[in-house]
Design brief:
The chain has about 110 residues and is an alpha+beta fold. Helices cover about 45% and strands about 25% of the residues. The protein has a single domain, classed as Alpha-Beta Plaits (2-Layer Sandwich), CATH 3.30.70.100. A four-stranded antiparallel beta sheet has the order 2-3-1-4, covered by helices on one side. The protein is globular and about 40 Å long. The two termini are about 15 Å apart.
Length: about 110
């Protein structure tokens, strides 16, 4: 059986973010399209989940994990990320909340 340190070292290479974004009224659809299109292009090999908040159509929670620290840095420094950030910030009603995270347990990690 795998011990806790072995599990932790296996997961530490998938850095990511948890973000909450609230669009200006009526911009939720465009925000969802931008974040989805961006991840489809930029986070090759990574895992992401975008969630709606019940009864809050302009609020989005996103969980983005990258294949490695290098992949995350490459995305953060890319022209695409800069363009997306600019477009997304213009849609937001308030500053986004972004927390850097590393998963320690997830179904897609346990089965790999």
């Amino acid at each position: 059986m795998e011990n806790q340190n072995e599990r932790k070292s296996r997961y530490k290479n998938q850095p990511g973010y948890v973000m909450k974004m609230v669009a200006k009224p009526g911009n939720g659809d465009l925000l969802r399209k931008l974040v989805t299109d961006g991840m489809l292009i930029a986070n090759e090999g990574g895992t992401w989940i975008h969630c709606l908040v019940d009864n809050e159509p302009d609020t989005l929670w996103t969980f983005e994990f990258f294949e490695s620290e290098e992949a995350k840095l490459n995305y953060e420094k890319s022209d695409l990320a800069d363009r997306l950030r600019g477009q997304i910030i213009d849609l937001l009603a308030e500053p986004p909340m972004r927390i850097s995270v590393t998963p320690f347990s997830a179904s897609w990690l346990l089965n790999s």
